Structure formats: C-alpha cells, structure tokens
C-alpha cells in the first residue's frame, strides 16, 4: 500500500533516510533530526512531501519529494529527493508503486516531468529506473554550494 506520510511516520522515515545514507556510504553526512522532518513535512507551510510504502502495517519504503519548476516547460514538476525500499522488501514492486504514485500526481496536476539524481555507481537503481522508461541526463552536471563556501557567499 502506498499512502501519504503522516506525522507518526517521521521516526521511521528518518531511520530509512539513515539506511539510505549508509548504503550510499554517506551516513556521517546525515544531519536531519525528527524535528527537522516534522517541521519540513508537516509544519505550517510544507515545501516537501513524502509517501510511504507499507507491507502488513510496516513502512518498508518511502519517497520524499518537492515541487520544482522548469522555465523551458513552463510548468512545475516533481523532484524526487529520496526513494528507498528496505533490502528485504525489494523486488516486490514497492519502488515502482512509489514512483507510479508520483507520476500519477504529476499527471493529475499537469506537471511535465519527474526527475531525480542517482549515484553513477548504483547499477541496481539505474537498471530499475531505466526499466520504467527513465532516461539519464548525461549532459548535465550537478553542482552544490554548501558548508563554508555557502556561508561565505551568503555573507557577501
């Protein structure tokens, strides 16, 4: 079952985020707290959203996303920040069901794309995304401003 996340899901979502970060060899980079997620997902003006996949009442996966905008398309889209299904639940269609729900939301709202990033070494994920018809955007390189560089630029 796929459903929108509720406030009671926050501790589980944070555990899943940590599992994903551990898989991506970046667990030490996770700074998010339950309070951060509670505020972002369920505060007075949420800008980020989550759906969870349940199996027999247990959350086994999640998709965390937000709206973006394409000047070229002239419409909003969905940016999938994280998609994760616990290893023991993989192969049962939960990842596909989560992405299907995001595609349904995008189509219903008139959005023209759903996009995300994937680590170049994550062959299982790349194969899964390609099997759904997703295409890599090899001509684009992601840049990130963070830490001291962000603070320095922000002080100018």
From TrEMBL:
Keyword check for Nucleus: no
PROSITE patterns attached to this UniProt entry: GNAT (PS51186)
Residue stretches in coiled coil: 13-40
Superkingdom of origin: Bacteria
Keyword line: Acyltransferase, Coiled coil, Transferase
SUPFAM superfamilies to which the protein is assigned, alphabetical: Acyl-CoA N-acyltransferases (Nat)
Positions of the N-acetyltransferase domain: 1-156
Any one GO molecular-function label of the UniProt entry: N-acetyltransferase activity
PANTHER family: DIAMINE N-ACETYLTRANSFERASE (PTHR10545), GH14572P-RELATED (PTHR10545:SF29)
Family: Belongs to the acetyltransferase family.
Name of the protein in its database record: GCN5-related N-acetyltransferase
Native source species: Thermomonospora curvata (strain ATCC 19995 / DSM 43183 / JCM 3096 / KCTC 9072 / NBRC 15933 / NCIMB 10081 / Henssen B9)
